[in-house]
């Protein structure tokens, strides 16, 4: 690393906060299909003109707006991803990132005390935070689930459990891809409205049911041909994860397939970068969560009595990977 790169890294949260403010104030939606002056937009979103002028100029400097003759307009890119009117709006995940900033700013405390410094997104979030978290999961998973579902052979498998499935994005895409498949999304009771709305939007309410419960204490049912566990384990400590994997293995039919998607660390735990940082995200936000190394996941699956444990050859961003094992 060079010194300019170090200083750039240190101050890069300024750009992050500028993006978050733009999304939080929803400046992109009114600018998606027309140009407005600062005063016009300030009236529309009830903001101070001086502050908004600075924000819009900075967003223009960041290539998220264009400015011509004193009027601002969204770029085609920001109209596609940052306008609430777009089907590919990414604002929920950006607002989820925004809610995490306060916790990250106290990372040093979490490291000193080994304890979280913010509310847990899945269990303790306020309504607006829960919405950004769950719909943000939908934003992210929607980019990957069609590709994942296309690369995992589920021929002959009829019943899927999407364990901690959140809004059910993966259950939806696995069902779309496999016409004979039905699915159950298991998640906390507070997730139900988000999952049911999403499933309904895809016209799959007849094939995908929601089952409310806490994986650490409640029954998840039995008789599944495939169980998909995506981005759950990192929120729990090793003992709880081993218990979850064992519970999932026990809920499979003989020959059933367990699939675990996580941000997976190499066994020396210093790479890839995203899982290494994600571990810290779990430190600030959960009592015992962390990113797991591939060897740790393999051990949990082996201890649960699974066979044929392997990492699927599916190329995913951010160090994500999918482990598979058969009962
Ligand atoms: C990071 S999200 C992942 C959602 C989805 N699996 C995906 O990959 O898009 C984690 C999900 O686990 C759920 N969850 C966390 N702890 C849980 C628990 N103890 N019991 C049931 N669900 C839980 C959360 O509500 C959330 O929907």
UniProtKB/TrEMBL annotation:
<dbReference type="InterPro" id="IPR029063">
    <property type="entry name" value="SAM-dependent_MTases_sf"/>
</dbReference>
<keyword id="KW-0489">Methyltransferase</keyword>
<keyword id="KW-0808">Transferase</keyword>
<dbReference type="InterPro" id="IPR016461">
    <property type="entry name" value="COMT-like"/>
</dbReference>
<dbReference type="Pfam" id="PF00891">
    <property type="entry name" value="Methyltransf_2"/>
</dbReference>
<dbReference type="InterPro" id="IPR036388">
    <property type="entry name" value="WH-like_DNA-bd_sf"/>
</dbReference>
<dbReference type="GO" id="GO:0008171">
    <property type="term" value="F:O-methyltransferase activity"/>
</dbReference>
<dbReference type="InterPro" id="IPR001077">
    <property type="entry name" value="COMT_C"/>
</dbReference>
<protein>
    <submittedName>
        <fullName>SAM-dependent methyltransferase</fullName>
    </submittedName>
</protein>
<dbReference type="Pfam" id="PF08100">
    <property type="entry name" value="Dimerisation"/>
</dbReference>
<dbReference type="GO" id="GO:0046983">
    <property type="term" value="F:protein dimerization activity"/>
</dbReference>
<feature type="domain" description="O-methyltransferase C-terminal">
    <location>
        <begin position="123"/>
        <end position="306"/>
    </location>
</feature>
<keyword id="KW-0949">S-adenosyl-L-methionine</keyword>
<dbReference type="InterPro" id="IPR036390">
    <property type="entry name" value="WH_DNA-bd_sf"/>
</dbReference>
<dbReference type="GO" id="GO:0032259">
    <property type="term" value="P:methylation"/>
</dbReference>
<dbReference type="InterPro" id="IPR012967">
    <property type="entry name" value="COMT_dimerisation"/>
</dbReference>
<feature type="domain" description="O-methyltransferase dimerisation">
    <location>
        <begin position="8"/>
        <end position="83"/>
    </location>
</feature>
